[in-house]
Amino acid sequence: MQTLQEKLVAEFGIDFSDLALLETAFTHTSYANEHRLLKISHNERLEFLGDAVLQLIISKYLYQKYPDYPEGEMSKLRSTFVREESLAGFSRACGFDRYIRLGKGEEKSGGRNRDTILGDAFEAFLGALLLDKGEKTVEAFLYQVMIPQLEVGNFERVTDYKTALQEILQVNGEIAISYRVVSESGPAHDKVFEVEVSVDERAIGRGKGRSKKLAEQAAAKNAVEARG
Predict the structure, then answer these.
(1) What is the tens place of the pLDDT at every residue in 128-154?
(2) Other C-beta atoms within 10 Å of 142: how many?
(3) Residue 107, class by beta-carbon neighbours within 10 Å (0-12 exposed, 13-18 middle, 19+ buried)?
(4) Parent domain of 62
(5) Domain boundary among 131, 151, 171
(6) Are 224 and 168 within 8 A, CB to CB?
(7) Phi/psi of residue 141, each to 5°?
(8) Do both 52 and 125 map to the same domain?
(9) Neighbours of 143 (CB within 10 A)
(10) Which of 184 and 79 is assigned the larger pLDDT?
(11) 203: which strand partners?
(12) Distance between CA atoms of residues 4 and 129, nearest Å
């Protein structure tokens, strides 16, 4: 963690007072589980906190930048900016992938490159930074690292196929769209989910992903592409 601390000071002017907090932010559950006797804390609680402050700061940014945008448009933009894939990209750009503490199994299965883990670590870092330095420092960090990239559109653009499908199907009124997990495969640390999307109980698409959210997007993409 000392190397990470030096990097944060040199590149972002951030000097953590509580290094244990910083260490927790970069500790995945798989590492904590493999070292239960040491009672090591993992980063899920900090991730929860980081998600909240990230949503707040990005919401304030959008509110100020787009004074004429309605709530719905701002919500769509925010969801694109804070998507798992986008946050993973910012995590890589900051070099955070090198400092995440993973269990041996997770490391071997390529967890260090997994968007879910990288995005969660980015949020956990924000949570730790909030506790250690306060909201203003989190905001300054995001305006240094994230906001400039959003300004030029240089972030991981991922089509929200669930929204696209909903807009296509509901053009003439409300239609019941449902997503159902039809299968799960793989070990606990590396599961693959298969999801089916249906309209009025009629299947219109299927997709697979390493999380239920990603599988739902893949199923919606399959349905959109089948229609067009």
Answers:
(1) 999 999 999 999 999 999 998 887 766
(2) 20
(3) middle
(4) 2-151
(5) 151
(6) yes
(7) -60, -45
(8) yes
(9) 12
(10) 184
(11) 198
(12) 13
Q: Examine residue 156 and state whether it is found in any structural domain, yes or no.
A: no
Catalytic positions are 51, 123
Find out whether 11 is annotated in a ligand binding site.
no
| Distance of alpha carbon 126 from alpha carbon 138, whole angstroms | 6
pTM above 0.90, yes or no: no
Contact 128, 45 (CB under 8 A): no
Q: Would the pLDDT of 189 be above 70?
A: no
34 is in an annotated binding site: no
Angle in degrees, CA 199, 204, 207, rounded to 5: 120
Looking at residues 33-53, what average pLDDT do you find?
A: 93
CA–CA separation, 98 vs 207, rounded Å? 31
How far is the C-alpha of 147 from the C-alpha of 141, rounded, in Å? 9
Rounded Cα gap, residues 16 and 127, in angstroms: 13
Distance CA 178, CA 198 (A): 5
Pairwise CA distance, residues 119 & 210, whole Å = 14
